[in-house]
Every structure is written in structure tokens, then in C-alpha cells.
Task: structure prediction
Amino acid sequence: MISQITCSHKTKAFVRQTLHSFPKATWWLQLLLLLCLYCHCEIQPFQPAACKPVWMSPRFPCDVTACNTSEVRFDCRRFHLHRVPYGITGNATELNLSENYITNISLHSFSNLLNLTKLILNWANKNKGLLIDDDLFKNLTKLNHLGLAGNRLKKIPTNLPLSVEILELNNNKIKLDNMTLDSIPNVTKLWLSKNCYTWNPCKRNVTIKEGTFAVLNKLQVLDLSFNNLTHVPKGLPPSLTRLQLGSNKIQYISEDDFVGLHDLKILRIQGNCPRCQNAPYPCVPCQNISLGIHPNAFNSLTRLETLHLGGNSLQLLDPSWFKRLKKLRELFLSFNFLLKAITGTGTFLRYLPRLEKLDLSFNFALKLYPTTLNLSHEFSNLVSLRTLHLEGLVFQNIGPDTLRPLYELRNLSALNLGTNFIIHSDLTLFHRFPNLKMLYLAENRLYPIPVKSPPKLSGGHNQVSDFSISPYINPHTKDFAYEVSHKLVKQECFDSGQMLILSSNNLFFISPKQFDGYENIACLNLSGNGFSAALNGTEFSLLPNLTYLDLSFNKIDLAYDHAFKELEKLQVLDLSYNSHYFQAYGVTHNLNFLKNLPALRVLNMSHNAISTLTTKQLYSTSLTELQFTNNYLGTLWKVRDATYTMLFTNLTNLTFLDISQNKLQNIPDEVYEYFPRNLTKLCISRNLLTDFKWEALKFFHQLQILDLSFNSISAVAAINSSITKTLTLLDLSHNQIFHLDDGFIKGPKSFKTLILSFNLLNTINQTTFQTRSEDSIQTLFLQGNPFQCICDSFDFILWIENSQIKIPRLTAEVTCDTPANQKDQPLIYFDITQCVNDSQAFHVYILTTSFIIAFMFVATVAHLFYWDASYVLHYMRAKLKGYRSLNSPDSFYNLFVTYDTRDPHVSEWVMRNLLVKLEEEGEKHIPLCLEERDWTPGVPVMDNLTHSIQYSSKTLFVLTEGYVKTGVFKLAMYLAHQRLLDENVDVIVLLMLEPVLQHSHFLRLRRRLCGRSVVEWPRTAAAEPWFWQNLRNVVRVDNQVMYNKTYSKASANMSDKPDVSAVKDFDQSKLKKTETAEKNTLPTKENGGQTLISNGANFLPPLAAIEQEKSGCGHLKCTGVPSDLLGELTIWGFTSVVRLLAFLGNLKLFPLNKYKCRVHTKTMLPNLFHVLRKMLPFKEKSQPSSVNVSNQMRTSCDRKVTKHTLNHDCW
Result:
């Protein structure tokens, strides 16, 4: 299975940067870095590349997409490249290097791109010439599409691979008359246009040799337009399906020019003999005025579907041209002199039964402006006709017989009569077109119907001299298309249904009779008519189905509330460019008509210069889009003037609001709150804003797109999920932003695109976009900012390299502004090695790595072996300093109270009862230490607890059912017993707030030894005064005084230390050896020792153990003690045992290190006695005394000791 190493981005970036910083590093350093990389990487199965491949560096100067393994695209178009970029991977299938500044492409530039199928080099040097090696493409055996347009090539490159099928050679200087095509026999599409014409002159006519294209027996598409050709090339391959010969100098088409082209479907030979009057380009008429065509020129084109003969100055149409064109669907005859053919016999129309589109536009007769014209009756034979263009025929009136031949065309859906200068038309005539969807009457001189005497022309000739082609007809002044392009027909209008286009006429007012019989019209365009009527709700009463109404570029007076009320189905209303009355002083500006339009979705009020309104609030429940650009909201929204604050508030269903170009310098705070709540897109671009209230985004619960471009905003606050959770795109381009706060984008998961182009940013902190990888933005635009290529940008450049955010045009338009020697250089190419001290960086790396490893090791050891390390530390200190008692300083508090702070009832009882009774009431106040009051914040609990117990005379445990189960209780009990061990001071006082530990051996023992130190909360209120008095007494009196007499007497007998001299004389040879079974006896008075342990009389009741889950105490944990060193002990006091151990250890009679004994504070006291029994040898008697334990009982005790439990039976 193919695998790959997958590393984190930070790891790869660090290793790449480090290796780059040490180009001469030794082999061991490189090996170390690679090892580090391997440790931070995982080997995973190879996965298909994503659309943004992770294996491409951000420094690579092209956009790379790889949505699957079979298609890898490198798009280097317009990246200001001066050479082919290094690093294009061998799996590339498409490469686009067009529109750059590449002057030369060497032989080895594409040597490794063996999988390339598409290579586009169009305008690789901005039309200045490109040098290409002859064998450049030789090894590209999979190349299918090669684009070489606009490179001033003088010949077709040689040694092209045989796999090339599409070859683009437009806009070069190839000499077509001398070219050879033997090297490209498999080409199917060949584009050779514009190699010699007006804008790429060669100053000669071109004639292609016969048979030049004969070798291309697979050729299907051939484009030879704009080449100054004087003849149709001979010997064209019969495989052609599309042939383009337009805009040449062909003056005659002979009978055999198209012989054999039986598969040809599209033939374009327009513009060879252009009609030069009013032509928007350099025009030279043909010698014979019009293009000559042999009657049988098209006989072989039996499968032709599209024929373009426009712009050839044709004066007649020979019917024989069309006799064999039975499959012709589109015929373009515009810009000729065919007015007589259109209105005369029109015999050619008999042979076009399948024609669907016919363009006869601009065939007007020179210096004629007829009253009317009548189409030839042969138009009735076009039974399949769908679209008919009759634009630019120039006549005055549409009479009853003008369009009569079209009435029977059931498929006719679009009729264009625009730009005919028609003065009068009987619109009822159009009722006879049952399936007509679009009637285009724009750019005429139609008057309203009530005008009975429209102005008449005296001679009819003076009107024609001003005739010119409409600007929107010609999309490109250089390359005239000879086709009609109606940009005034908006797509939404076209999609709404039947259309009536009456724009740019003389309809200076609207009358209901104007639309009589057009009740099915869905889209009405009345723009550019200049009418200034005040609409009263009756003008469109005959159009009940109208859904789209365009009234732009007029002078509408919105004075009445009931305007448009007759249009209940209206969805789109365009009132833009009606600023005349909005600029008039003192005129009513009423927008209450919105209430009358229940279905209105889109309203365009742009370019009206609205600075005052009679309507203070707009009301609509259906409006979803409002265009309010190029007005004066800056005047309406004045500071401290709330008149228009709620202007848009009641547009409850509004989702898109555009208030661009409204001279807004500031948006009042209250306006933010009254914006419509359902907005998804808000556009406030091209204003004068210097600030934006970012926290106001919380009012927009559904906002997705916010456009603030082209303002003067200088500061941007942080945007996080608490402000907006729906924003996906924020456009801040063309502002004056010079700084972004850290964490600018902190949380909204929806945020995907941020546009910061053309601001004043000179650097960006890497913390600005610190987000989780799944939440981060996907696209960031930074073009046009004056970035500084200095060492201060080091972190920013590293962030760009490590980030997964896509930065479009990173290597082309994200450039340096300073310093001067780096100006216009890509920011990503800044050499950051000059900002890094190689030796120092390596030492810092080694130091920080060592510190991290050491810190992790110490932390791990401390966590796993804390008690062992503590023991070793204390043991070593004891070895050096010896044993000494810990004398605590004077107590700061009389009483430390420990209780369950998590229980609010207990806390309340302590603060309101215990604190008051002991610290505030009574003759002598008792200072208390309380966790909730006196503990130092921020100090560990262990330290606070230790100091509280150490510096308090006594410790009061307020016991409840929940408290005795907590770790704090156990820890406090451990520490209190530790003080007993260290200082021989008993500080424990137990207050039973609830009946707990009823079966605890420790509690039972405590009651027997020092019963007064255990107090219980009374069950009756009458006993509370006695309880408080008793508690005060217990707190003030030392616990040693309160012990029972029996224990006090025994303790006094054991208080003296053993006789050191007697023990020194003890014979150590009598001690038991581990290797033998010899029994050693304890030293007695008879054998020279002092009796320390007695089995006789005067022994005390056994000291009971404390259960582990109830409390804790110090113990000794020993390993390596012989298992047969067992015995029974009766001990007169715990303190004596401790002294005994210290004494024996100092005399080295019993080497504790041999048995590896260590002090632990987590375990229990019973193990101490268990160890003593193992360490102190004795001579076993034949008959056990009454206090000895039988073997069976001893086994039971051992088991209980193991469970940290020792009861009376074990003594």
C-alpha cells in the first residue's frame, strides 16, 4: 500500500525553516532534525488529494487545485511571472501560464511534466513576443490542448506531440500563406484568427495555398477570421463541422469553395464587405459594394444549421442559395441592404421551413424614412420561427398590414422592433400573436395613446442623418459582431413571463388605455420615457397580472398613498433614477404605497438623491430586498435626531439591504438596534464611515454577508461568537485599517471569508487569527496593502506558511511597500534568514528542547514517585542533621475549625453560631481560624491546612455525614496526628454535629482516653447553653489534663527515657541472625539491659488502631524484615514507642536501614506495632501468658493488620 508521512503543519514548517536557516549544516544536525520530524509525524495510508493540496508550499506562485488524483490544475494566470515557476509537480495535468511576463521558455521547463494534458500559454508575455525552443513540447506525449495565442509567433512550433487535438494560435503573426501543418495531423480544433487585420496589421493581403489544410483529416473546427484573406482556402478537409471566415477581405465565393464539406454545420462569413456608414471601426468598402456569392455556392452544405451573412452589404438574396439548406435553423442577415428583399417578393423564405431564428436588423435604406412598410407574405412560410429581429429598419408607423404575414406563425415568441424610430403603433395588432412572449419596442418615438396628432415629418430625410447604432448593440468597438445584443432586457424580467419593452420612447405620461388588451403582460419596461406623472393607482389597472415593473430613468412624483394599489401581484418594482422630484424643495415624498403591494419582493430606490421623506417609516411584510443606494441617508440619520431612526424597522421580512453611497459618516447607535432583524446581507459600502459599532452585530441574528468596503474605517474590534454566530463573509476592502486586534476572529464557526484588500496594513500579528482549525476562516484577501518586508514581519510570514487559510494572489498582489529595495516584491519571498542568527537560533533550540525534556521528566517522576522522593529527601536530611523535636512557635489562633465548606447548612451554622458563640460572646474571646475567612487565596490547600493546624492551639473537627468521607477531613486528621508525633501535643477536638463514626474504633478509644474532647450537638434547644459552655472549656483546657487517670498514670511511668549505658552494654551477638533459626531474647535487668517492654503486671489496656477510612496517623513501612521475627507486645504509651525507635536507631542496635523502614503519613498507626513485633527479638515461652496470643489468633491479627485494622483481640 502506498503510504505518506503526515505531519502537523507547525512541525513541517519548523523543520523546513530550520533546514533553510542552516544550508551548510552538518550531517548530524540534519539527521537530528529529520528525527525530530519523524517523531512528530505519523505514517498514514495515502489519501486522495484535496482541492487545496497540502503538499504545495504557500510560496509557490500559482493556485493549485487537486480535487482528485486524476486532475491536478496549476493556475498561474496573471501572477506577474517572468519565468516558468520552479516546483510544478510531475502529477500536473493542466497548466495555465497566460497573461504574464515570460519572455523565454527553455527546453527543460516542462521536462518532468509528462502527465500534462492541457497547457495554456496565451499572452505569456503580454503580447510582446515569446521565445520557444523548437523541442519544448516534444516530450509532452499526453498533451491534448495547447494554447499559444497572443505571443507574436511567426510560425507554428515544430515537433509538437501527435496527441495535440486543440491548438490555439490566435493573435500571432503567423504567415498563413507559407505555413505547413504536417506536424499536427491529429488536430481537431484549430484557431488561427487575428493574425493579420486592422489591430494586428501585416500590411498585406493573405492567400492560403491550396491543400494547406488537406493533411488535417480530423479537423472539425477552423477559425480563420480577421486575417485579410482574399479567397476561401481551397482543399478544406471534409471533416469540418464549423468554419469561420468572418471579417476578412473575401469579395467573392465561388461554386466550389465549399465543395465536399457535407458535415459542415456552422458557417460564418460575416463582415467581408461591410456597410461602412456609421461603422464604429475602420471600414473599407468592397470594390463591388456587396459580397458576390455564386448561386450554387452552398449546394454541398446539406447539414448546415447556422449561416451568418451579416455585414456583407448584400442587396438581394438569391433563392438558390437556400434550396439545399433544409436543416438551416439560424440565419443572420443584419447590416446589409435588404429592405427590398424583406418587403418585396422574399422568395428565399420559401426554402427555410426549419428556420427558428432570423436576424434582419439594420437593413434600412439610405436617406429614406417611410411612413410604414409591409413584410413580404413569404414570411408566413417560416412555420418554425421563434425569434425575429427587425430592429433598425426605420419607419414611422406600424400599420394593419405591416406584420400581417406573421400572424399565422404559432411558434413566434420574440419580436424585436426596437430602434426603428416608430412614432405611432396600434398596439392592439399584437393581440394576434397568440404565443408572443417578448415584444421589444425600445428606442422608438412612441407617444401616449391620448395624443391624437403626433408630430409629422415634412420630408422624412432630415431624420435619418442622425441615425446611429445604439451603444448597447455593440459590445466591443474593435471586433464588431454584426449581431444584436439586448442588454436592456433583464433576466428576471425575461423569466417572469410575457414582456412588453417600451423603454426610451416619448411616453411622457401613462394612460390606462395604453395597455388595453395586454392583461397577460407579466413584465413591463417603461424606463427612460421622462414622464413626470403623480401615480394615483389607476394607471396600470388593465395589467392585473403584472409582476415586474421598470419605471427607472423617469421623473415619477410619489405624492399619493394609493399609488400602485392596482398591482396586487407585483413582485419587482424599479424606481431608480427618479431623482427629479426628490431634489425639489417642499414636495411630498410619499412611500406609503408599499402597504398596497402585498406580493412585492424587490424594491429599487437607488440614485434618487433622497434627503427627506414625508414617510418616516416604511411598512411591508413581503419585501425581501431593498436597493437604497446613491441617496442621502447621512442627512436623514442625523445625530440627536430620531426622526428616521426606524425607517427600515417595519420591513419585517427584509433579508437584503443595500445602503451604499449614502454619504454616511456615522451611523447613530440607536439605528443599529432598529435595523430589520432578518437581514442576511447588509451592504454599506462606498460611504464615509470612520467607525462601525461591532458589538451591534448581536442584533443581526441571521446576518451572513456584511459589506463595508470603500469607507474610511481605521480600527476593527475583535469579532467572536458572542457577537455573531452566522456571519460568513466580511468585506473591509478599500478602507484605512492599519491594525487588527489580537484574536480578531475568536469564535464564529460560520466565518469563512475575510476581505482586507487595499487597506493600510503593514503587518499582521499571528495571534490575530488564532482559532481552532475547524473554526478558522477559509479565505483571506490581502492584496494592495503596504506591507513592510522587515524583520518585524517575521512572525507574520511564518504564520502565512503554516496557516491553512487560502490567501488569493499571494505571490502576485500581496507585495512589499517598504523598504525601497523590496518594493513590489512578493511578501512571501522575503528572505527571513537575514533576521535569524543561525548559531544563536541553534543554541536556543537545543536549550529549549533540553529544558522541555528535563521538565517533562521531573514532572513525570514527581507524579509517579512523589512519596519515594520525599522519603529519600527526609532520610538524607535526617542522616545529616540527626533527630530533633519540632518545636512549634506560639499559636496565632486558639482554635482552628475544619468543617464541610461545600455544605451550605454547615457553613451557615459555623459562621452564625459557632463563630458568634466562641469569638464574640463570653468573657474571654477565642480567636478562630476559618477556611472561608482566614485562608490565603491562591495558596495550595495543603499549605493552608498545615499552617492552620500548626499555628492553632487546638483543631476542632465539625463532623457530619458528608464531611467524614472527604479527603480534606482525612488530610487534616493526618496532620493533627503528625503534630502529636512531633510535639507530643494532642490538639484534636471532635464536635459531632451529626451522629457519625458510631462503629469507629478510633472514636471509641477517644471516648475512653479523653472523653471530654468528644462533644455532641444537643438534641434539645434547652441544652444548647450547656453545650456552648462545655465547648469553651474543652477548647481552653489542654487535652493532656482531660485524659482519664489510668492513662495519665501509665504515661507518667513511661515518660522516662531508657538508660543509655545499660543498653550500650548489651551483647549484640545475642541478636537473632537472619541466616539462622537462633532465637534472641530482649535485654533484661538480669542480662544487663533495662526492661522496656513488660508482659507482667501494670500493663495498660491496648492502644486501639484507627480505621483507615475514618482517620489517619503516621506509620512505619518496612520491607525485608524476616518473617519469623514475630512476637507479642504490650506498650505503655505511643510516645514511648517513638522514643524507643529513635533510641535504638541512635545506638545502632537495630539498623533501620537494613529493613528499609520509611515514615509514611498516609497509612495507619497499627503497622507501627506490627513492625515492632518483627524488629524486636524475644524468646518464645513454652506456655503463653494470659496476654500472649495463640498462633491462631496471631494469624488472624496478621490478616487484620494487613487490612490496616487492629482491635483488642490482637493485643
User: Anything to note?
Assistant: The mean pLDDT is 79. The chain is about 20% helix and 10% strand.
